[in-house]
Amino acid sequence: MAGYGAPPPQPGPYGAPNPYGQPPQQGYQQQPPPGAYGHPQQPPPQQHMAPAGHAPPPAGGQDPLWGYFSSVSGPDQQISAEELQTCLTSTGMASYPRPGSQFSMETCRLMISMLDANKSGTMGFAEFKQLWTALEMWKGTFQSVDSDRSGAIERAELKDAVLKFGYSLSDQTIDVLMRRYGKHNAHQIQFDDFVALAVRIRALSEKFKARDTQGSGYAQFHYDEFIAICMSC
Question: What is the pTM of this model?
Answer without folding.
Answer: 0.72
